[in-house]
Write the structure tokens for this entry.
Amino acid sequence: MQDNKKKQASILQYDKTDVTISAIETKYHGFFKMNEYHLNHKLFSGDQSEPFTREVFERGDAVVVMLYDPKKDTLLLLEQFRPGILRANETPWMLEFVAGMFDDNESPIDVAIREAKEEANIELKPASVQLIMKYFSSPGGTSECIHLYWAPFDSSKVSSGSIHGLAHENEDIMLHVVSRNDAFTLLTDGKISNAATVIGLQWLAINYQNL
């Protein structure tokens, strides 16, 4: 196993030390931040690239937690409005898992527990929240890292159609308890297009029998 990991690591030629950042300029700072990086990096030829700039959307990291009931083989999906979909010719209401951004001095588990309570009125215990993976959502333009978890829940205590969320954060969230097979059908039919939800469901398809 260790040999396989070493082989996989050797595929990547360079690391962060092969990048030179000469300056970082903040171009916008509101709820989110946009930084302009001035940099150059080592090329696969061994030479150095010419200096260039890249704008990076610094939106912070996020935690996503897939709530799955192994006994009833059901999932919790949240329906809510997302303004980033408005330019597309489709509904801006998406089906997603519980998710949220970090507050100061929070661990990923802290975020998962807080967001499950805020968005679905579900109380999670730290030991029940299990890491699936960490990934970068769109590293060509944003620094955001997603911490994707799953946790068991009792779906019999959750009412489909109930509404949750924090009013002062303009959250208006409707809960849907769906079977695993129905969730996969929604995915296949293109009704679920949120990246973290897609990745979580694909992981579940491989691993549900072991949960």
In short: The two ends are 23 Å apart (CA to CA). The chain has two domains: 2-58, 62-210. The longest strand covers residues 19-29. The first helix runs from residue 2 to 11.
